[in-house]
Structures are given as C-alpha cells and as structure tokens.
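Kindly draft a polypeptide, keeping tokens residue-aligned:

***
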Amino acid sequence: MTHMLSITPHKHINLVMVFCDISS
C-alpha cells in the first residue's frame, strides 16, 4: 500500500489509489 492516500486531500483520489493498489 502506498502512503499517497495520506497525502491526497481528495477522498475520491484516495479511493482510486487504494483501488489501484488492490488491483496491482
């Protein structure tokens, strides 16, 4: 998992980042 979720202010981006991490 990346720490990007903590850095990104937009929750929508957080969901996308998490989804990408899970898909990888």
Summary: Residues 1 and 20 are 9 Å apart (CA to CA). The mean pLDDT is 71. The radius of gyration is 8 Å.
